[in-house]
Write a structure and sequence with these properties.
This is Respiratory nitrate reductase chaperone NarJ. This protein has 231 residues and is mainly alpha-helical. The chain has one domain. Helices cover 58% and strands 0% of the residues. Helix 4 runs antiparallel to helix 11 and helix 10 packs across helix 12. The chain is globular, with a radius of gyration of 18 Å.
Length: 231
């Protein structure tokens, strides 16, 4: 699915490739009838803005938006498992799914990085790709809702994913919860994190380094509170 590949590119760290192929991206989104008209207009505006903005400025904006807190983290399992051991095993399982599709992961990226996940989905048949998007509905809705509240035009990328999968945006309850969240990307919030974060040395219990296999048994990849059914 070429649209998923395009969204993957736009959600990755900005590069000159986006600006070079801006017209191609516009045409691709305009032709995808699964995306509603309002979303297509939002995507077009985003692509045009990115094409017209200095690359260094785009990169600084991207870092400030996605790397200054966990609320907008583009690492999916961080929203589900945090730093628990479960995250490590989920990553191991996800790597297995990628390898089945011939996707070799660059060591610098974790498998739950949204652009990498979308690259994987883009290689699948449409029904299989939609299945993965539907399964990640809760996370897509939360990320879209938070970006919408912050009036970020990156919101249209997640809205497009919801459109493609035939999913609705956050319901009233989730919108209310998101509206009550305290932002974690302010200077004060970041200072609190640094003050509260313990200093540790040596191996930790969480993350990939702490992951252990379950005696060879497959452990389902869990995107939300509902475990994934057999792959």
């Amino acid at each position: 699915m070429k649209t998923l590949k395009a969204i993957s590119l736009l959600l990755d760290y900005p590069s000159a490739v986006i600006q070079t192929h801006a017209e191609d991206l516009e045409a691709l989104f305009a032709a995808d009838e699964a995306i509603d008209m309002e979303t297509r207009r939002g995507l077009t505006a985003l692509v045009r803005r990115m094409a017209a903005t200095d690359l260094l400025e785009l990169q600084a904006e991207y870092t400030a938006q996605f790397d200054r807190g966990r609320a907008l983290s583009l690492y999916l399992f961080e929203h589900v498992h945090g730093e628990s051991r479960d995250r490590g095993q989920a990553m191991v399982d996800l790597i297995g799914f990628y390898e089945e599709q011939g996707l070799v992961i660059d060591s610098k990226e974790l498998p739950d990085y949204v652009p990498l996940f979308l690259e994987f989905c883009s290689r699948l048949t449409r029904p299989a790709a939609l299945g993965w998007l539907v399964e990640s509905q809760y996370l897509l809705q939360k990320l879209h809702g938070r970006l919408e509240q912050r009036e970020s035009d990156y919101q249209w990328l997640f809205k497009a994913l919801l459109d493609i999968a035939g999913l609705e945006t956050a319901d009233e309850q989730m919108q209310r919860q998101l509206g009550e969240e305290e932002r974690d990307d302010t200077a004060e919030a970041l200072d609190r994190v640094w003050a509260e974060e313990p200093v540790t040395f040596g191996p930790t219990a969480g993350g990939c380094g702490g992951a252990k296999t379950n005696q060879g048994q497959a452990v389902p990849v869990s995107w939300s509170t509902i475990p994934r059914k057999s792959a």
